[in-house]
Amino acid sequence: MIVCGETVYVGWFTRTNHAGPKRLAHLLFPHGYRVKTVEVTGCLHLKSALTGVASGLLLANPVWANLKRVGGVEVLDEYKDMSFIGGEAGDETGDVGEQQDKTKWASQMGA
User: What is the pLDDT at residue 73?
Assistant: First the structure.
C-alpha cells in the first residue's frame, strides 16, 4: 500500500481478490481515505513500481504498473526506461551498459 494524501493505493496482482481492497475501503472510508487499486504488471509489489516522494508526488515506473487509476497527484516517471532498477530477487543485471545507465541515472538524481 502507498498512502498519498487521502488516497490509499493498493497493488492489484494475480494473487489479489476483490474482497481485500473492498474490505480495506470500508475500514478506511470513515477516516476520510479512499482506496484505489493499481494493477501491478512487471514486478511483485506495488512499492517496486510506485512510491511516495513527497506530499502529492509519486515516483513511478509505468512499465511495472498500470497508472490509469493514479490521479490527483503529480507522477514522475523519470526512470521508465530503466526497468532493470529494483529487479526482483534473482535477476541478473550485470550487463555493462545497464550498469552505466544505472550509474548515470543515480548521478542525475543526486545520489
Answer: 85
